[in-house]
Amino acid sequence: MHILDTAKVQICLALATVLLLPFVLNSGILATEILIYAMVVAACNLLLGYTGLLSFGQGIFFGLGTYVAGVLTTRWAVPIPLVLLVAVVLGGLVATAVGWFSIRRQGVYFVMLTLAFAQMFYFLAYTFSDITGGDNGLLGVPRPQIMGHVLDGPWGYYSFVAIFFLVIFAVLLVVTRSTFGRTLLAIRENEGRAAAIGFPVRLFKIEAFAISGAITALGGALHALLIGIAPLESINYHTSEMILVMTIIGGSTSLFGSVMGAGFYLLLSDTLSVIWPRWLLLLGLVLVTVALFFQRGLWGLVERGWDAFAERRKGPQKEAGDV
Amino acid sequence: MIYLFQILNGIGLGMLYFLLAAGLSIIFGLLQFVNFAHGAFYLLGAYLTYDLVERGVSFWIALPVATLIVAIVAGAIEALLLHRIYKLPHTFHILVTVGIALVFQELAIIIWGPIGGSVPTPDGLGGVVMLGNFVYPQYRLFTIAVTAVLAGGLWWLLEGTRVGAIVRAGSESASNMALLGYNTMRINTAVFAFGAGLAGLAGALAAPIRGVEPFMGAEALSVAFVVVVIGGMGSYTGALAAGLMIGIIQSLMTTIWPQGAQLFIYIAMAAVIAIRPRGLLGRV
């Protein structure tokens, strides 16, 4: 494992991100969005980087979370903590179901199935418009309150989300470094051998899916509370694509790479979409470039930069040793 | 009777789905390459047809020209870019082709605008056929006839000719083909162009029925995936059966429960996967 990928360094990087974002960015909404997507992308990374499952259906759980928040707060005024809990539980359950179906096939077929399920849930939301609001979405999702004080300022809600982000990030760090996480790595490396040793591979994959889905749904719910609506777009193909693209751009070998991927994508979109509405064309070219030249993503660049730095510092002694 | 009518509609739709899925399946069979840009080629075929017809070109010329241009564009992309990434894991195939699909989608918006448009029914097929009490558009019968002939021709090409034998041998073992002296890189380019051309043709044929809009590619892609998953990848008859099944289900549901028509495509897929994970006719 790379020295930057140890749990201590990773959690420090996450903490530094949370503390620095308010100084770097003017928009509290953008900063909050980065943290929300960072945890969603890290959950996608649990599947892609640690289990070897490329899921094109993360938008299902994200959208589910936004609808849970939308329906529960606008129809029944359910308290926010309960809303978030329901989002997590429902996200985990739906992910278990989608996972159960999808992992019946492997490799490319798995990817195709997750994409098809993403479409299925989109059309579910579109069809049952009396629950989801259809094209209009659900409007008027309120911000949470803490001790009678509504978090409607730009940075108040940021702090609220930051706590969730740090907790989730720590949980994912623990999960990936536990026996469970190591087993996922074994499955990624050689599924046949992991099965031969006696691991219930399918169960492990479904569990990874459930964890990922629960976190993604939490992110979706937090996002609905942020922007005040639960739109139909949150469950469409584009959301799934965006989460996956963030994961790969960030680099799937480290959890903090996912934070970088989310930040990079959202900052790029925030800057470019103002200048040129057709900025997705540039994104398309970025994706091709990443695949051709930066296969380990942004995190790969960081590791390479660190190695070069460390090499230069201890350079002379090592060269002497080599000779 | 309305159901019979919708089944006929569904066959027309299903044959278009089959064309899409067959292209995807042929490319995957030979190249082991996941082409998420397949929907973009469908989009390009539809928009080129739209553009040419708008300029006053006859649909009968626009159809082959659009198909050919899609095949050439796809061949160029393969030769310049894609062959470099075959060796990489599937993740990067997906990343690159998703990127290409985004570029096409945005280019379509830049060139043709965000709204989309409709393509008039081609000359000579604007009429209707009476089926009992129902009128049936001639153009739809035409698409069924064309795609049926194509399906037969494609089957003959793959199973009955030397070209087909080379393609099938290549999908069994590309390295052996190279050892036998075949220029596998050129074969790869040709097959990719051909498969993308099928998607372009499907788009061109669908344009007068469904019109054009910038996001049609993503929908076509996911339908093609569903057909391939249900039919069993690499199975030609499976793709045909699954395409027809999906087309007919979608058309029938349009009568029974219009809002849920699209949804049922995916429910059908989930049902097949639950019962038979490898698909209807898949071998592996």
UniProtKB/TrEMBL annotation, chain A:
CDD domains: TM_PBP1_LivM_like. It is a multi-pass membrane protein. The keyword Nucleotide-binding does not apply. Coiled coil: none annotated. It is found in: Cell membrane. The chain crosses the membrane at residues 76-101, 108-128, 155-175, 208-230, 242-267, 279-299. InterPro entries: ABC_transp_permease (IPR001851), LivM-like (IPR043428). GO terms for cellular component: plasma membrane. It holds the Pfam family BPD_transp_2. It comes from the Bacteria. GO terms for molecular function: branched-chain amino acid transmembrane transporter activity. Keywords: Cell membrane, Membrane, Transmembrane, Transmembrane helix. This is ABC transporter permease. It comes from Thioclava dalianensis.
TrEMBL record, chain B:
GO terms for cellular component: plasma membrane. The keyword Transmembrane helix applies. Keywords: Amino-acid transport, Cell membrane, Membrane, Transmembrane, Transmembrane helix, Transport. It holds the Pfam family BPD_transp_2. It is a multi-pass membrane protein. The chain crosses the membrane at residues 12-37, 57-82, 94-115, 139-158, 187-209, 263-281. GO terms for biological process: amino acid transport. The keyword Endoplasmic reticulum does not apply. One of its GO terms (molecular function) is transmembrane transporter activity. It comes from the Bacteria. It is found in: Cell membrane. Belongs to the binding-protein-dependent transport system permease family. LivHM subfamily. PANTHER family: ABC TRANSPORTER ATP-BINDING PROTEIN, BRANCHED-CHAIN AMINO ACID TRANSPORT SYSTEM PERMEASE PROTEIN LIVH. This is ABC transporter permease. It comes from Thioclava dalianensis.
